[in-house]
Amino acid sequence: MRKSAIALVMAAGLIAGVAPAEAATAPTRPTAAQKLQLQYLVEEEKLARDVYAYLAANVTSQKFSNIVKSEQTHMDNISALLKKYNYFNPTTTRAPGVFRDVELQKLYNDLIAKGSVGVAEAFAVGVAIEELDIADIKKMAANPAPADVKLAWDLLLKGSINHLAAFSR
Fold first, then answer.
1. What CATH homologous superfamily does 28-168 map to?
2. What is the mean pLDDT of each run of 10 residues along the chain (169 residues)?
3. 61 and 12 in contact (C-beta within 8 Å)?
4. What is the reported pLDDT for 25?
């Protein structure tokens, strides 16, 4: 009976994309630090969405309009995790361009000012946002986390890499 239970846990981990050793050691809930990271990350995705929406309206590049939709999906994915774990979502009552995190608020203000100068500057802002996202996600993903959180990070990382490529062309 014990062997079949272990096999079931390993199979579930493999289906979820988690290696057997990692499945045995991965936490079932985010840590307190990961809770804060998820709350920050949803705001960071909001920052990207809001900056790109602003630039789409003011710089007239279709790339921004397309990527806004993707950033909303990223926000929705992290929001679902926050809801699943019954964590506060700092983005639910915030208007576009308004952030709880004061550093993200300052960054938003700086980025829209820089990106408003012209198309090349707007693309440079896109590169800066995606590089920031990639660095933050890589730091977060370096520690063990529940499989659903790891999956969300992996999807966000792939999305940010694709967005970075789009802005770098």
1. Ferritin, core subunit, four-helix bundle (1.20.1260.10)
2. 37 42 66 95 97 92 90 96 96 96 98 96 96 96 94 95 92
3. no
4. 62
CA distance linking residue 48 with residue 71, whole number of Å: 7
Give pLDDT, residue 4: 39
Domain boundaries, the chain: 28-168
Q: Are 7 and 55 contacting, i.e. CB atoms less than 8 angstroms apart?
A: no
Helices 147-168 and 32-59, packing angle to 10 deg: 30
Cα–Cα dist 47/104, whole Å: 7
How far is it, in rounded angstroms, from Cα 28 to Cα 115? 41
Would you say 131 and 105 are in contact if contact means Cβ atoms under 8 Å apart?
no
Let me know the angle formed at the C-alpha of 54 by 48 and 56, rounded to the nearest 5 degrees.
Answer: 95
Single-letter residue type at 78: I
